[in-house]
Amino acid sequence: MRVMLVEDDRAVMMVTSKYIESFGHEVVPAIDGESAIDIFDPNHIDLVLMDYILPGIDGFETTRRLRKTYQDEWFPIIFLTSTKGDNHLALGLDAGGDDYLYKPVTAIVLESKIKAMSRIVKMQKDLLAANKKMEQLSYLDGLTQIYNRRGFDRAISSEWRRMHRDKNTLSFLMMDVDFFKKYNDHYGHQAGDDCLKVLAKALEEQLYRPADIVSRYGGEEFAVLLPGTDASGAQEVAERFVKVIESIAIPHIDSTASEYVTISVGIACSGKSGNKNIKKLIKSADEALYKAKEGGRNRSVLSPN
Questions:
Q1: How much of the chain is helix, strand and coil, in % rounded to 5?
Q2: Which of 96, 126, 191, 233 has its CA 20 to 30 A from that of 262?
Q3: What is the value of pTM for the model shown?
Q4: Under 8 Å between Cβ of 102 and 82
């Protein structure tokens, strides 16, 4: 474990640090509350030992600020104090502390406290990891293993905020498998599911940047986010999609667009006039997709808006 020791008394700092290191842990020293706040990183510090009497802001206020700054993270804070009494105990717990140790701290008591807290830290990290995995799974489409609609909605909201912050562009592609109902009717729903899995994998393989995202938007519809991509770049990606999907050569006897499975793509770009919000961007791509279908399918169309 990495233990941040917040203590202004050099003698106490030295003795307590030696104890902690003898238990096999690493010490991160801080001599006051301001230093503790500057140094602290929940990804690299597992436990905080906090003296409540400090120069500048005291340990209670330092704890409150740490809890407020990292309110989505959990880490144990144990107060070190030479003052006994229920009032100080209550103040410390109200500030966000988890336990108390009274000075002078003995090695055996300190080691027992750190062991107990390390067990809690491990359980908390295991729980957070499990929750994170469950959350990630909730954003995936069960059939194709790419983002589902929920994952897409989350991603486009995040990218829209990033686009405005960075004053960049965001392109959006809406695509539909041509005559997919006829494909299902002729080849069967199992073949339809297999087809969607192949197409999803092919689309994902055509995205070369980590920020680019493909999702199953619904049924036989797919959506792609291209952050930092202008209209011409989005057109290039869309045309690549169209060609690659047809080149897979999945037979589609009932299609009038090709003898193979194909897609139609509508393209919209946030940099074009009129796309002032997410709904407008999606609507523009959807309208362009409709024009691609009207134009014979197996093609892409860029929205003028």
A1: 50, 20, 30
A2: 233
A3: 0.61
A4: yes
**Can you give the CATH number for the domain in which 44 is found?**
3.40.50.2300
Single-letter code of the amino acid located at 130: A
Answer whether residue 248 is part of any domain.
Answer: yes
Whether residue 43 contacts residue 49, with contact meaning beta carbons closer than 8 Å, is answered with no
Question: Which one of the listed residues 220, 236, 287, 294 is annotated catalytic?
Answer: 220
Which pLDDT does position 271 carry in this prediction?
A: 65
Q: Give residue 181's identity as a one-letter amino acid code.
A: K
Q: For residue 252, what are its two tokens?
A: 């589609």
pLDDT bin (cut points 50, 70, 90) of residue 68 is very high
Q: Which tens digit of pLDDT belongs to each residue from 190-224?
A: 999 999 999 999 999 999 998 999 999 999 999 99
- Is 143 a domain residue? no
The answer for residues whose C-beta is within 8 angstroms of residue 133's C-beta and 6 or more apart is none
Give the range of the structural domain holding residue 239, as residue numbers without chain letter.
149-302
- Examine the residue annotation and report whether 111 is marked as an active-site residue of this protein: no
Last residue of a domain, one of 137, 157, 179: 137
